[in-house]
Amino acid sequence: MAAQPEIRILNNAADMFQAAADEFAGLAHAATRANQRFTVALSGGSTPKSLYTLLASRSDIPWKQIYFFFGDERHVPPDHPESNYRMAHTAMLAHVPPENVFRVRGELADANAAALGYEQSMRTFFRLQPGEFPRFDLTLLGLGPDGHTASLFPGSAALHETQRLVVANWVEKFNSYRITFTYPVLNHSACVLFLASGTEKAHALHEILEGSEDLPAKRVRPTDGRLIWMSDRDAASGLSGSTR
Fold this sequence. Notes:
Blueprint: E1 5-10, H1 13-35, E2 38-42, H2 49-56, E3 66-70, E4 72-74, H3 84-91, H4 111-126, E5 138-141, E6 166-171, E7 176-181, H5 183-186, E8 191-196, H6 202-209, E9 226-232
Parallel strand pairs: 1-9, 2-3, 2-5, 5-8, 8-9
Antiparallel strand pairs: 4-7, 6-7
Helix pairs in contact: 1-2
């Protein structure tokens, strides 16, 4: 049964990031107590950088027991300004054991090879059998004004993928490939945490939580896990009183 969203509206972006950091820490401690590790899929883009910087300043997080993956990546080298890995490494991952960080090899000329290689690294880490999907303890996601999440963009081919874990998704608006997790991976997560900040996200957030428009982020509904939406009041400005 698909998860029903837990909606948390915070006064501003700073409060939202603080709440997300507290949620991250709580999930990390619960997972490491139960399984001696905490597996996380990180979000790229601009919104999560503040969260990562905040997390990096905390001493109550079991860093050595956390394993980081990336829900999506740009088809660029790791030192490129647009690289999600570069952003996360600068903000947070420099404090993490290198062997605990699994990055997409976006520097490969063939984006499909980068996607296949990343899928294989996930299959190896999670010891997956054919037909199985990994179960991340936490998947962090953002929201684009067009309703995309990870690199699942409106009208793109990856929206229809049901077997692969990771694909190279051609995004027409950027005239480039993005390497992205697929819905089966996102929806197999134990917990998905969306962050939405700013008035430019208000329409998309309304459509996802209350509207009828079929936006990509709306299809993220864990089948056996939690779905948390955190937003500031600007992003939530289009929601009805009952939802807010």
